[in-house]
Amino acid sequence: MHFDLIVVGSGIAGLSTALAAAPRRVALITRGELARDGASRWAQGGIAAALGPGDSPAVHASDTLAAGNGLNDAAAVEVLTRGAAEAVEWLSANGAAFDRNAQGFLLGREAAHSQHRIVHANGDATGAAVMQALAVTGRTAAHLQIFEQHAVVALRRAGERICGVVAQGAQDFVELDAAAVVLATGGIGALYRHTTNPEAADASGLALALEAGAALSDMEFVQFHPTALRTRDGRSGQLPLLTEALRGAGAVLLNGAGKRFMRLHAREAELAPRDVVARGVWAELERGETVWLDASTAVGADFPQRFPTVFAACMAEGLDPRREAIPVVPAQHYHMGGVRVDAAAQSSVPGLYAVGEVACSGVHGANRLASNSLLEGLVFGRALGRRLAAQLPPAATVAATVATAPPADDCAQVSAAISQAVRDLLWREVGLVRDASGLRQALAALDTLARSAGTLAERRRIAVAVQITAAALHRHNSVGAHYRRDAVQARAG
Ligand code: SIN
After folding, report:
1. Is residue 397 in a domain?
2. What does the DSSP 8-state code read for residue 392?
3. Nearest C-alpha to atom 4 of ligand 1 is from which residue?
4. What is the pLDDT of residues 166-176, one digit of tens each?
5. Are residues 278 and 351 in the same domain?
């Protein structure tokens, strides 16, 4: 089958790209149901946009650069923050019902933002509202052919150029060719014991890019959210997120003695940048304390209306957050690193583009500012779709010339044992606090694990884990989300 463009992934970045590429013929491939299998629909906080009095894209940009420890690409930050207001308006026009009052959008506040600038929908259900609206728009878009329940297992090539994909459906494999392939496959949560991401965030797009020879960047910058709900069953995998907007509304972190501890770590206490708060929580847990998020005074009886998603998750655990503090643990949340792309979202391999969390445009630097991720997918996705629509040659001129080896039927499977081994290893050694000795041990363990891997997906997952670990070993200093215990000790000594 021939298309003008293939987009892999139907989160906010993939759908924004695919919709903006009209009227070109686009194949949109997604492993689950359209708009439902990625992390976008789980986003709680919202979308950052400088819409309030006294705010401006320049102030939003300066907060973004400060959170990213100045390692951001300043031009990308400018594009992001300048594009925010128009992107929010576009979403509204497409049916996303953001919370408003008589003056306009209701603007929330989150950590490391100097202004109230978080646009949200149905309190903490922003991702669900936005993705539902985009799914409706996507299903009625005549230029889109949507392949649901299809996993991309290989990229197709014409010489050095990527020109298509092989995707596995329930019954068979399909081969699709196009002038360009856009990866919008999201993050890496499935590589960590605790994550706020759904299982589909399994680094599969990163692995495809790596195999194609694309350069990856900033792989060591893995963001941990300070407050996921510590469930009674102590399970691995996705944990319910307790949005940062709770702390923005005044919720406080308490240790087992009922004492606030974040002031010991940062002047801004609970509203310090996410990496600082996450390490503060981690330090308490390492000392054998339990940590609680208490919103009973700050939010109290308003909990069900203001934070319906968190309220439902707590009640399902038998906790009433109107009256009780919530037990928390940090969890992997976002990956700042990814497929290195230029200002046009082009990877180092011709024909291959990346957008959203799988990409590394440098916009987030060493640490992403809260509520800049849906924004990134929207702004960069729409710009990419428009650009490709204007530039791509007609579909009929492109066809694979390099044979793709026929994939094995189980190529997309990862065994529970391998999956858990990777999760535990990265959590322990490539988590919130790292050191050279642990990172070396992790590389050795991944090497052993790779030898026992049976399927292509297992080898690929391990290959990405190696990239993250090696990058973390290579960066000796602590910066942003990458914290080297040995670097701190060296400085102290
Ligand atoms: C949150 O709601 O705390 C997460 C927001 C984000 O990751 O941007």
Report:
1. no
2. P
3. 45
4. 999 988 899 99
5. no
